[in-house]
Design brief:
Protein name: DUF2516 family protein
Helix content: over 70%
Keywords: Membrane, Transmembrane, Transmembrane helix
Order of helices and strands: HHHH
Pfam family, one: DUF2516
Largest sheet: none
Distance between the termini: 53 Å
Mean pLDDT: 92
Low-confidence stretches: none
Number of strands: 0
Radius of gyration: 15 Å
């Protein structure tokens, strides 16, 4: 196999792992933490991360559904990069 196929193979499984992690993290957080962090509600993020993880599982970057795979990747990446740090910050409280 060629290097570009190996890179995409690794990216596929890394994205799938990130999707499962994002959904599990969203599921384990308190519902009021989302409102305190000024983000959408917990059911909304459960739907977004669950749908994203499902799209990452169902489609691949090599198939005709690559657009849906990419949309799922963007959805879970937004949760991991933007929402998750705010939830952790709100639940931890001030660092002083």
């Amino acid at each position: 196999m060629y290097l570009d196929l190996w890179v995409m193979f690794v990216a596929y499984y890394a994205a799938l792992g990130m999707g499962v992690f994002a959904f599990a993290h969203a599921l384990s957080q308190r519902a009021d933490a989302y409102q305190a962090a000024d983000r959408m509600t917990k059911p909304a993020w459960l739907g977004i991360t669950g749908g994203g993880a499902f799209a990452l599982l169902l489609f691949s970057p090599f198939s005709a559904g690559a657009m849906f795979w990419l949309a799922g990747l963007v959805a879970v990446t937004i949760y991991v990069v933007d929402v998750r740090p705010r939830l952790i910050e709100v639940q931890r409280g001030p660092r002083w």
